[in-house]
Amino acid sequence: MGASVRAGWPLRLLAPSIGLLALALAGCGSVVGTSTLGPALTIDNPTHSKANGSPISLREFPAGPYHALMPQGQRMYTLHYWSRGLDLQGYLDVPPGKGPFPVLVYLHGGDPTPEPAHWTGAPVYNPKAAAESANAHSIVFIPNYGGYGPSHGNICSPYDCVLDVENGLKALSHLGGLYVKADATYPFGFSIGGYVAMALAEHDPQVRALVLDSPWPGALAFEAWAQQTHLSRMDAADLSFWGMVKSAFGPNLQSVLYQENSVQFNKMHVPILIIAGTKDNTIPPSLARFLYDRLHASGVEVKLQFVPGGHAPITLHVYQLVQKWLLPQGFHLYIST
Q: So where are the chain's domains?
């Protein structure tokens, strides 16, 4: 699938940027003096290692327009780190105080199959989106997967996207002055990012709870849903998408490619909230229900919340639902009023 095709159906999995919900997360902060800012961070990579998860550079955004979008006292950084031999990029919001703080990880959408192309449009995260996503009560990590935006490489498979986020979280452990609370990582995934969030929860014991907004369920679960759904109930976009996945992953459901890009639901041991749009033409309501049923049958504490809207809805109402659900999970999602 060439880059020229991306104007068509591949964009169906590109969830909207979190920056579209201006100030809903950031609050009404203003530019503040350095005396009230959070801790200045440093890199601890004296050997300049290129191993996975090793930081490359850390640049702080100086006080200016972006800080006006953030809660008072925040610092915002651009972090580059190594993953799969690639120079990857993400943003880091750090609240004032010594911590330790929980970590909120925003995971954007994308293409469900690898592609020999680089993507720079939505939903790539930019500084404005990073500033608007700052949280007064937590560290916020906002990575761009390999092949997206400032990160090098071609568009990654979902499996490689997971590795890129795991290595980004590993890079945070090499930053001096950043105090992370144990067992308090909260991935918030949109579309393909929902799959990435679930895959992280399989392997990372620090993950405490997941929020999935219109999540892609992984290759095997998607195939099972497609087989279960009568063709007459699938629209042209669904059929095209199914055909693309079959073409990209091949006919053998036992292949490494299928296994790598799928979630083992019996390994999910954290609470999960699924948000689904009632008019989503990308992840249909029946697919969201299918994912819920699979997780519930595996013994996962899961809640499915349908809301008005299309793919990956990110309204203030959605964030209020998420805020209410996250509080019992030990996380305070900051929303301005």
A: 3-329
Cβ(280)–Cβ(212) under 8 Å?
Answer: no
pLDDT tens sequence across 6-46:
222 333 466 665 554 433 343 333 333 333 567 789 997 76
Model pLDDT for residues 37-70, shown as the tens digit of each residue = 677 899 977 667 899 999 999 999 887 788 888 8
CA 276 to chain centre: 16
Q: In this predicted structure, what is the pLDDT of residue 214?
A: 97
C-alpha pair distances (Å), 86 with each of 33, 282, 299: 36, 30, 37
> Counting every residue, how long is the chain?
337
- Tally the C-alpha atoms within 13 A of residue 197's C-alpha that lie toward its C-beta: 32
Question: What interhelical angle do 236-249 and 219-228 show, nearest 10?
Answer: 130
- Contact between 314 and 21 under an 8 Å Cβ cutoff? The reply is yes
Q: In 3D, which of 174, 129, 175, 171 has the Cα closest to residue 148?
A: 129
Structure tokens at 67: 């800080």
Task: Determine the Cα–Cα distance for residues 93 and 80; give it in Å rounded to an integer.
Answer: 14
70: how many CB neighbours lie within 10 A of its CB?
30
Name, in order, each residue with C-beta under 8 angstroms of 35's C-beta and a sequence gap of 6 or more. none
> In the beta sheet, which residues pair with residue 99?
none
User: How far is 110 from 164, CA to CA, in rounded Å?
Assistant: 14
pTM: 0.90
Superfamily of domain 3-329, CATH level 4: Alpha/Beta hydrolase fold, catalytic domain (3.40.50.1820)
Q: Which helix (H) or strand (E) holds 90?
A: strand 86-94
Report whether 197 contacts 116 (CB < 8 A).
Answer: no
| Contact criterion met (CB below 8 Å) for 70 and 91 | no
Q: How far apart are CA 126 and CA 210, in angstroms?
A: 23
Structure-block tokens of residue 119: 């993507």
